[in-house]
């Protein structure tokens, strides 16, 4: 890669659902994006903006329309299967149940995560070296999961499962981590804990990350880069310097200038990163 190319490049990526039917929807509209190594990008936008579709295309769940390209570390992975995409990508989903297997133990779940993108099996789970590695990865969470390797994951709380999913998504050292509204189903206190754990893991592992959120305060608080999506397009792309002193109102203004439309998604405007914490100007 040359200095102008990102770890992840999206080139002319579009995605149309229900083509040539009355339900046709353009979910992504000619998206071009460079995500550089160690970027921690937050992605904000109202429902239907294309946020999750963007992650799904990157992860290989959906292919882009003809001509669109997904490139990671200089390798065109556009036409690879979702299974092959998993060699490059770790992902944590909105629902804690999606990324973890309830009837398997913590140890077995982590064993599968180690083999992501490879031939699946549980033989890796049984040796002491791997158990030590799992304990080392889990201990920094501060949840005691390293002492519960034989516990079935279905007995864990939602927050514990998402914390485990974070470790699972990063233990194989993927090139890119995708966080898809991964705190949306958690209560505010647990969501804050999981977000803080996410930041710690991302910084410790120096992993390039894209985090979709439905919360403007979270988008401003975490990461070093922020993009806003609207109708399948990226309409705002802010660097760390550009966004570091911005408020939610500033983001709304930026959206309205870029889109030419009034911002009307009250679910984003009313949500807060931490209900117990007042805005800076009220402290």
Q: Would you give an account of this structure?
A:
By secondary structure, the chain is of the alpha/beta class. The protein is 32% helix and 20% strand. The protein is built from 10 helices and 10 strands. Strand 9 (225-230) and strand 10 form a beta hairpin. The longest helix is centred in the last third of the chain and has 18 residues, at 188-205.
Quick overview of this protein structure:
By secondary structure, this protein is of the alpha/beta class. It is built from 10 helices and 10 strands.
- The shape is globular
Cα-atom radius of gyration: 19 Å
Tell me the total number of β-strands: 10
Helix proportion of residues, in percent?
25-40%
Ranges where pLDDT stays below 50 over 5 or more residues in a row are 275-283
Q: Widest sheet: strand order?
A: 6-7-8-3-9-10
Multimeric organization: single chain
Number of helical regions: 10
Largest sheet: 6 strands, mixed
Q: Can you give the mean pLDDT?
A: 86
Order of helices and strands: EEEHEEHEHHHEHEHEEHHH
Helix and strand content put the structural class at alpha/beta
C-alpha end-to-end distance? 46 Å
